[in-house]
Structures are given as structure tokens and as C-alpha cells.
Amino acid sequence: MEASPTPSSAAGSPIPPARGPRARYVLALLVAIALLFGLWGAWRVFAPSSSDTRGRLAATERQLAVAKAYIEEREQQIATLKRSDQISRDANRDLQGALAEREEEIAGLRADVAFYERLVGATGQRRGLSVHALRLQAQGPDAWHFATTLTQNLNRGAVSTGQMTLAVEGTQAGKLRKLAWSDLRRQPKAPGVAYSFKYFEQVEGDVFLPAGFTPVRVEVRLQPRSGGSVTESFTWADATRDSTAAAP
């Protein structure tokens, strides 16, 4: 028998044999392998290496350390500025207090100078025995210390001698009451405080008020060794107010 002639295309070239399932499987496997190699290469290119990660971590730690040191430095500067500001405030407060004390001292000295000028100056008004000022300071719940400035410049060079007593007017249990010197001293027939001076003298002592007594007015009585007595009154509010007008 004669072999059958091989089919040919119209152009006369041979027709390739048809591909089966096995060929398609091999082709798909090759494509998958190529895709995996492509992905692996891209990961190698774009993924950071472990050395790069360590370097970045080290750089970040250095930046954090620098930032921490900067913050600590600024906090220290703020603390220093606060301390300096507090010291300045304390120094300014002390300075203001010292200035206030000096001003008060100067005012007192000026008052003293004016007092002496009125008393012994050539143009000072001539006055006989008188009470220039009275000051009272609390020493406890019922005790008071008094300081009375007595003056005279009518008889220059003459010595004024005598005794001084106090009396206090006020209210107690809703009624008017006047405390005599013996009541204030809590001593029957208490002697007065002696004085003896040429131009002025400050007479001091202590008096005691009974419980529930509200003082209103203080009366100062001078009994010279010769001549009539002298009496002057001061309100309790004025007597207890700290005044620089009184001579020392």
C-alpha cells in the first residue's frame, strides 16, 4: 500500500501538530515560576535590609536622646529663671520693707524735730504744764501699757514735779462707768506716777480694765507739787492709734 500524502496548507507549508493538556500545564508552570522570580527580585530591591533597619533604629535613638537632652536643658533653664525671679521678688519685697521702715523713721524724726522746735525754739508758743500725747498699747486681754508725754516751756529752766493719774470712761453691762486710777491699778489708794522735768518727759506705766468694759475716753490728770491740777482728755481710738506725732 502506498503511504497517504501529508496534508498541507494552501501555501504548501506543514501544519504543526495540535498541543495537548500536558503542554499547557508545562507552560503555566513556567509562567508561575517566572512570576515568583519577579516578585522575589522586587522584594529584594525594595524591601529594607536588616542592616538598614538597625541603622535607622540607631539614628532614631540618637535623635530621641538629643531631644531628651534639649528638653532637660530647657527645663533646667526654666527652673533657673523661676528661682531667679523668686529671688528678685524676695529682694524687692525686702527692699520695699526697708524703704517703708526708713520713711517711717524719717517721718518720726521730722515729727521729733517739729516737737523740739515748738518746745524750745525761739518762735515756739509758750505753754505751761500740759499733756502733749498719750499712747496705749495692749499687753494682754485686760492689760494696757501707757506712755504719756508731758511738756512745759513757759518757765524755762524751771523744774516741774508732781504726779500723774489716769481715768477711763466707758460702758459696762449697758451702763456708763468711769474707772478711777485706783480701779485701773487694782490697788486701793494707788499713788500716781511721779514726774519731774524741765521741758518734757515721757511717763509710762500699766493699767488694767475689768472684763466686759468697753473704753471710750481716757482722762489724764496732772497734779503738780505747787499750783492747780491740769486735766486733758483723749478718745480711746486716738490713744490706741500708733502715732508718730508723739515725742520719744
From TrEMBL:
Residues 57-119 form a coiled coil. The chain crosses the membrane at residues 25-46. Pfam families: DUF6776. The keyword Transmembrane applies. Keywords: Coiled coil, Membrane, Transmembrane, Transmembrane helix. InterPro entries: DUF6776 (IPR046703). This is Uncharacterized protein. It comes from Aerolutibacter ruishenii. The lineage of its organism: Bacteria, Pseudomonadati, Pseudomonadota, Gammaproteobacteria, Lysobacterales.
